[in-house]
Structure formats: C-alpha cells, structure tokens
Write a structure and sequence with these properties.
154 residues, alpha/beta, Nucleotidyltransferase, domain 5, five-stranded mixed beta sheet, 47% helix
Length: 154
C-alpha cells in the first residue's frame, strides 16, 4: 500500500502548476469523471460517459483531458475487501495499459474500495431519488476517489 501512496505523492508533486488531475471510476457500463481544481484541493464530479468500445471511450476521455488541461489521470482500482485483485481490478489494469498506449499522460491507481458505498450513503442521506442516484453515482464516485489522492497533499 505504501508504494501506491508514494507513487501518488510523487505524481502530484511532478504535476506542472498549469495542469489538473482527472479521476475516473471505471464501471462495466459507464465511466464517471471528476476533475481537481488548479490548487489540487477540491475534486468536482463532472459527468458520466456510457461505455461502448475501448477506442470510443478512450477518445472521449482523452478529448476531455485535453480540453481540461489534465496532466495526470487517477483511475480507481476495485480491490477486493481483503486487498487482493480480482477480475474487476485486472480489467481496470488492462484498460489503463491500453489507454497508456494512446497518451503520454501518467496514469496512477487509487484504491476505490467502498467509494460507491460511501457515495450511495451520502445520496440516501440527502434523500435523493433512485433515478438521481443512478444518474450521479459514477461521477460522484470518481470525485470521491480523486479527493482521496488530493488529500495526500495535506
């Protein structure tokens, strides 16, 4: 775990001041997207894209990254509760390997265990409708994941 923390800290430290960070919550049918402000203190949920084929998904993500001055991608890694990697984590790593071939942007992983559960709980406490929860969960989970990395700077 400490090596992931060290990688995240080093990646944030190496980020040029004019660039921002993008967080991704990679699901089987959608990808939630969040971005950090230029001070790297606040993660903001942005939007969710419906997954189609890898090339189309990658194109949408990289176009968004270029438009938003992104210098680092944080990808939520869905570890099992015991910290091991299962099929979902392997799929996420494969997505990252394929995306790395298309961009010079560094991609780091962040443990996303319980991120969706935390976001769901918050939305339930806010008395958000089922439809609104479904519409927002992925981008809010991406912001939750990204905020975890940003909090390392404090």
């Amino acid at each position: 775990m400490s090596s992931r923390l060290e990688i995240a800290r080093a990646s944030l430290a190496a980020l040029p001041a004019t660039r921002r960070v993008m967080g991704l919550d990679l699901g089987s049918t959608t990808i939630g997207i969040a971005t950090a402000d230029f001070t790297l203190q606040i993660a903001t949920p942005r939007h969710t894209i419906a997954r189609t084929k890898f090339q189309a998904d990658a194109k949408a993500l990289l176009e968004f990254a270029a438009k938003e001055d992104i210098g680092l991608i944080v990808l939520g890694l869905p570890l099992n509760m015991d910290g091991t990697e299962g099929p979902r984590a392997q799929s996420t790593r494969a997505f990252a390997r394929n995306l790395e071939k298309l961009t010079p942007l560094p991609i780091i992983f962040w443990d996303e265990r319980l991120s969706t559960a935390a976001v769901e709980r918050t939305m339930l406490e806010a008395d958000m409708s089922r439809a609104k929860r479904a519409e927002n969960v992925d981008k809010l989970a991406a912001a939750y994941i990204l905020q975890g990395v940003l909090d390392l700077r404090r």
